[in-house]
Design goal:
229 residues; alpha+beta; three-stranded mixed sheet; 7 helices; 10 strands; 41% helix
């Protein structure tokens, strides 16, 4: 079993806390005679370019076709390689080579579509809201931070998540980042697209607060904090 243990304010706030949880999970696995590997991941910033139900399915499909946000790609390669290594009982390096081949050959894309079709779904039926607002940068600089908790709260406000279990979910709304961590931005560049079906109060201010753009580029943290076995 491979477990992704996020290190983020909304869950395990520190690497130390995440490590404690990971070791508990490994011990539970040992009790049931199951091998468990925990991948500690930095989730201070969102993964990928999109946040929202239909948007993320669309991005998953595009990932298999080659449009791969760097942090998301590294996480997927890492977790998939650990899974293949564990499942086939082969060295991690050999497993990683298999993962790269499956992605590049189109086998992963084919399996993804087969999995959806076998459940009666279709990628052609994905509906994304036609109401789109594009937020532009008001300064030059580098994207040094994207606040994942503020992103989650905004997407929930759009209707893509629940506050309580009785709430309905709007699958068609969410946000798309045109640029991501570490990228150089010029004033006037498109930064974020918001797909919405209801008006959000102070939307520009909320979008401005999502991303920190600074004149000096910061070194980005690795998405993989640790792998505990």
């Amino acid at each position: 079993k491979i477990l992704d243990v996020p290190v983020v304010d909304a869950f395990m706030k520190t690497k130390e806390d995440a490590t404690i949880l990971a070791n508990y999970m490994i011990k539970i696995g040992e009790y049931f005679n199951r091998k468990v590997v925990c991948v500690l991941t930095d989730m201070d910033s969102p993964l990928g370019y999109t946040v929202g139900n239909a948007l993320e399915v669309k991005e998953a499909n595009m990932f298999f076709l080659g449009k791969q946000e760097p942090r998301l790609k590294k996480l997927i390669i890492t977790i998939a390689s650990e899974m293949v290594s564990l499942g086939l009982n082969i060295p991690l390096k050999e497993a990683e080579e298999k993962v790269y081949f499956i992605l590049s050959s189109g086998l992963a894309s084919h399996k993804f579509k087969t999995w959806i079709n076998n459940q009666g779904g279709s990628l052609k039926d994905i509906k994304i809201s036609d109401n789109v607002y594009t937020y532009k940068s008001n300064i030059d600089g580098f994207i040094n931070e994207i606040d994942s908790l503020k992103v989650a709260n905004l997407v929930k406000e759009l209707g893509a998540g629940r506050t309580k279990k009785e709430d309905s979910i709007d699958l068609s709304v969410g946000i798309e980042f045109i640029h991501t961590l570490g990228e150089k931005i010029n004033k006037g560049d498109d930064l974020i697209k918001v797909y919405y079906n209801k008006e959000i109060k102070d939307l520009d201010k909320k979008l401005e607060d999502l991303i920190k753009i600074e004149s000096i580029k910061k070194e980005q943290k690795d998405i993989i904090i640790d792998v505990i076995k």
